[in-house]
Amino acid sequence: MADEKPQNGRSGGGGKGPLGDLVKAESMIQLAIALPAGCLIGWLIGAWLDKHFHQGWMSIAGIVLGAVAGFVQIFTTASRFLKNDKEK
Fold it and tell me: How far apart are CA 41 and CA 82, in angstroms?
């Protein structure tokens, strides 16, 4: 009974093998997309607020806030990735 694999299909190797490589690749893709996606979403929301409130500065503020959110996501993902590498 002690030699059985876990029910989720993962071995206890801590992310080794092809599945672990896919998880690492997904984390790197997250890092590459976080900043541009944050800026784009912030710009879109800011442009909508510009039209709704008849202002001209909200899209710039949206881009800045989106960039900050993108950087926070990058640092969070990178620190989680580095922490997982140290545990292995």
Answer: 27
